[in-house]
Model the fold of this input.
Amino acid sequence: MSPKTLYDKIWDAHVAHEAEDGTCLLYIDRHLVHEVTSPQAFEGLRMAGRKVHAPDKTIAVPDHNVPTTAGREDPSQMTPESRIQVDALDKNAKEFGVHYYPVSDVRQGIVHIVGPEQGWTLPGMTVVCGDSHTATHGAFGALAHGIGTSEVEHVLATQTLIQKKSLNMKVEITGKLAPGVTAKDITLAVIGETGTGGGTGYVIEYCGEAIRDLSMEGRMTVCNMAIEGGARAGLIAPDETTYSYVNGRPHAPKGAQWEAALNWWKTLFTDEGAHFDKVVTLKGEDIQPVVTWGTSPEDVLPITGVVPDPEDFKGGKIEAARRSIEYMGLTPGQKLTDIEIDTVFIGSCTNGRIEDFRAVAEVVKGKKIKDGMRAMIVPGSGLVRAQAEEEGLADIFREAGFEWRLAGCSMCLAMNPDQLSEGERCAATSNRNFEGRQGYKGRTHLVSPAMAAAAALTGKLTDIRDLI
Amino acid sequence: MEKFEKLTGIAAPMPLVNIDTDMIIPKVFLKSIQRTGFGKNLFDEMRYNRDGTEIADFVLNQPQYRKAEILVAGDNFGCGSSREHAPWAIADFGIKCVVSTSFADIFFNNCFKNGILPIVLPQEQVDLLMADAEKGENARMTVDLEAQEITTSDGAVVTFEVDAFKKQCLLEGLDDIGQTLQKEASIQSYEAQMTQARPWV
Done:
């Protein structure tokens, strides 16, 4: 048998039907659903008189619209439009009998944090969701990607997706990371290298010593942003770190089934000599704490850099860079560490997990955020919030001057009341710095949690290495 | 789904690279639970001032492009979020075909589900079509899906590739779910095997 990549193995294990031209029906093991991209899909089922094919494999949770302030069960906290979407999910989840975590449930949170936390996401699975950051689940060695609403309806009705196989890309991060450098810096550095279109048509497997050394939470951060590099999915082969994270979670297999699962999971790695269509290698030692300066996640530079000159780019990127720099209100040649910020957002499916918050607490413990700074920390789930309370992190945040919120997507995409105002500038641990992403004419600089914490203290983009 | 066979219409040029789905339809408009009505907010922040007045120099506000049915766009069009509201807005505006050197994967798939034909061409050919589109309303291109050809306003012919299955679905306006349900026996037999092989799933 010819050697296979990890992607090849998971793909082969899920083909329910293959047509002569290679178009496949890929079986979907887990379908995650949220309130923004599902209402039209459920309505489609209803109009066609169809049922959800596998409600036991379908998990719904509201996250994009939900307020993150106290007393949010009060419906007046939401705009009428947001309330309609959340109410629609509530109604659809009950009517179609899928697993559901409503806002009142402590397990509610961002869909990509809830899935792994509850053990729904397991190695070797196929996972989809009407959300591009579904790539997150690839950290478990699961083939996971975002889909549109028509495909959400297709999966609800058939538990399959019509797919053709993508190409294989290997991203290897060799060696060790330097102090102050995190999973977020890895994933941004890779996008800086490949561009936001560099992964189009590929499934990425991240490997190498620096990836192996990451915790599951760090691995989720890396895979989460595979989509920002254009890849359909990001994958990391499961290992002991994965198994110990999964073991004991509510929906993880137990007893004899655990042993059987483990036996299969241990076969999920790329064989020696397997073919990759593209290979990118970065040295872990060379990666520095990074920050974005523009309005595309590929606009990445080490924090020690300066705002680039648009003329340094080629082709259509010259105009795009000019537009970005104007939108961001920056000047070519300006030192990144001279950029003053007024808002800090820590959270999202990229960096809203307990380890991210521990990293923030380490930086801000016993200190105060800069006067006038608006800084919020939004846990990725109710359980992350509870754990942070228990570990005393929440007290550290409150004492430092942060707002300590309830779980949701919040200011990552600003569909709820958490938004930037025109001209406000934010250091954010989220995943997109697009124009208007965090609010109309708001300006976003993507950074790691520790860098966001540092910026909250100093009021400027700051090299975390100066504070450790 | 509406069929796509042959289209002759005005092409609008949008050479900016990395046009993301937040630009195509900002999130404030994602709160509808319908599939229609997004066209008026297509490219909202590029198209309108905060007070709702039009930004005159934005391409789709220019008189010659207001009825564009084809978009010739910069590289990596549709990157970012998976929101199908982006192709819904494009279709609702009346655009049925987008040409670029590359598209983000999810957006590309979403187009086919909504009767929109996304066409990938090499840079030189996109440049040729962009130049044609810049001629304004005289730039009426013809996109022939059956023949896989684009004919410019001055008669130049550019051929393009399209996945055979996706082509068929567009030409016939086929509903994916209906087609997949015809293969229900394969799905059930896969599920029966998996109940044995991977019962924990």
Summary: Chain B has a mean pLDDT of 96. The CA atoms of residues 141 and 152 of chain B lie 5 Å apart.
